[in-house]
TrEMBL record:
Keywords assigned by UniProt, alphabetized: Bacterial flagellum, Cell projection, Cilium, Flagellum
GO cellular component, one term: bacterial-type flagellum basal body
Annotated ranges, domain Flagellar basal-body/hook protein C-terminal: 187-230
Transmembrane found in the keyword field: no
An annotated GO BP: bacterial-type flagellum-dependent swarming motility
Domain Flagellar hook protein FlgE/F/G-like D1: 95-147
SUPFAM superfamilies linked: Flagellar hook protein flgE
Name of the protein in its database record: Flagellar hook-basal body protein
Top-rank lineage group of the source organism: Bacteria
Presence of the UniProt keyword Cytoplasm in the record: no
Pfam family, one: Flg_bbr_C
Length: 235
């Protein structure tokens, strides 16, 4: 029974993380360039249970069936499917029509990556994000507004799952990425979030029902423990 409590604890903890992730996706459904974060779980390896006979046979080992201690969060990945394009008509808005991310330099000097091309111009006529981060060009410097498509630095990653989210559609990576030789940019458009509200709501309902099922199992386990503590001693 105590083992059952431990298994239920791990299950509820996993469901809590799933619920937090779903809430985060729903909160960013209107964030341009946001890529939905997906979690995947695995089951712990099965272990063999055994016991020993009592009395004169107390050294005789009895082998029982295997037991699984529950599930755990195995990792996460970004849904790299492209969001729909929305025409804005603003000359400082850009959408990437192929794979890749804009490179931006944050205020602390760290380079981050985003597909949110909702830019503006600073006092030096340079492209910056709405937060004021400098948008980098292929020369690793600022990009100045001029006629034609700006020379933005666009990089891609073989595994988008290696990107770590900073929130607000910004990501970082230990890998510098590979420069996209011929990026396809659409000026006057923004890529919308690829979050499917309907899918996220279904996942939220499913997670809620799993919470309810675990709550019932916890209540049954608690009742059994009470009987074991209160009644076995009377026998």
């Amino acid at each position: 029974m105590i083992r059952g409590l431990d298994t239920l604890y791990q299950s509820v903890n996993l469901l809590e993380k799933r619920q937090e992730n779903i809430s985060g996706n729903i909160a960013n459904v209107q964030t341009s360039g946001y890529q939905a974060k997906e979690l995947f779980q695995s089951t712990y390896k099965q272990v063999q249970l055994h016991n020993y006979q009592g009395g004169n046979d107390n050294n005789q080992r009895i082998q029982y069936d295997g037991f699984t201690f529950g599930n755990y969060l195995a990792g996460s990945y970004l849904n790299s499917a492209k969001g729909a394009f929305q025409q804005t008509g603003r000359s400082t808005d850009f959408a990437i029509n192929n794979d890749g991310y804009f490179r931006v330099r944050m205020n602390n000097g760290q380079v981050a990556y985003t597909r949110n091309g909702n830019f503006r111009l600073n006092d030096q006529n340079q492209y910056v994000t709405q937060e004021g981060y400098q948008v980098l060009g292929n020369n690793n410097g600022a990009v100045t507004a001029a006629a034609g498509i700006p020379d933005f630095s666009i990089v891609s990653f073989p595994n988008d799952g290696a990107l770590e989210s900073l929130g607000n559609a910004y990501y970082i990576s230990q890998n510098a990425g590979t420069a996209v030789a011929s990026p396809q940019l659409e000026q006057g458009y923004l890529e919308q979030s690829n979050v499917s509200t309907a899918d996220e709501m279904v996942s939220l309902i499913q997670t809620s029902r799993e919470f309810q099922a675990n709550q019932k199992a916890l209540s049954a386990t608690d009742d059994t423990l009470k009987k074991a503590v209160n009644n076995l001693g009377k026998i």
